[in-house]
Design brief:
Layout (H helix, E strand, L loop, with lengths): L2 H5 L2 H4 L4 H15 L10 H8 L4 H17 L20 E4 L2 E4 L8 H11 L2 H4 L4 H10 L1
Antiparallel strand pairs: 1-2
């Protein structure tokens, strides 16, 4: 019940201070301790046993899904504020599903955070036709 609240709009408000990241991860750490037979196990063990990724990984996955949707024109043009593709403005372009960002002043902003990560993904992941195929390929990489 808590996880959707912790993950809501990660692409927009994504925390970047180490202290904030630890506090957010502590929420999931505490929640996994509620499973009685796992209470005295390590956090990593509890995550593996419960088949849960870290919240850091979930934020990354959410951001990459947003980039996939943006680069594959899932959103209307007027909804694209943070990341622009070649057709929209010259600030950022895509070449074979790779993104080039020309100007960005704050490295914690969404476009600056995602460019290197997106560009490092294998072509078989970014060349997916639909978002569900992208999710599966991203998880399997």
């Amino acid at each position: 019940m808590v996880r959707p609240h912790v993950e809501f709009a990660n692409s927009v408000w994504c925390p970047y201070n180490i202290g904030d990241l630890k506090e957010i991860e502590k929420i999931q750490n505490t929640a996994t301790k509620l499973v009685i037979k796992l209470k005295n196990k390590s956090y990593v063990y509890r995550l593996i046993y419960l088949n849960l990724p870290t919240l850091k990984y979930r934020r990354l996955q959410g951001e990459m899904i947003e980039v996939f949707k943006i680069t594959h024109n899932t959103y209307e043009r007027y909804h694209l504020i943070f990341l622009s593709t070649k057709e929209l403005t010259p600030e950022a372009t895509t070449i074979n599903c790779k993104i080039i960002l020309f100007t960005m002043t704050y490295e914690s902003f969404f476009p600056a955070r995602i460019v290197n990560i997106w560009n490092s993904l294998p072509n078989k992941v970014v060349d997916a036709c639909i978002a569900n195929a992208f999710k599966a390929r991203f998880k399997a990489r």
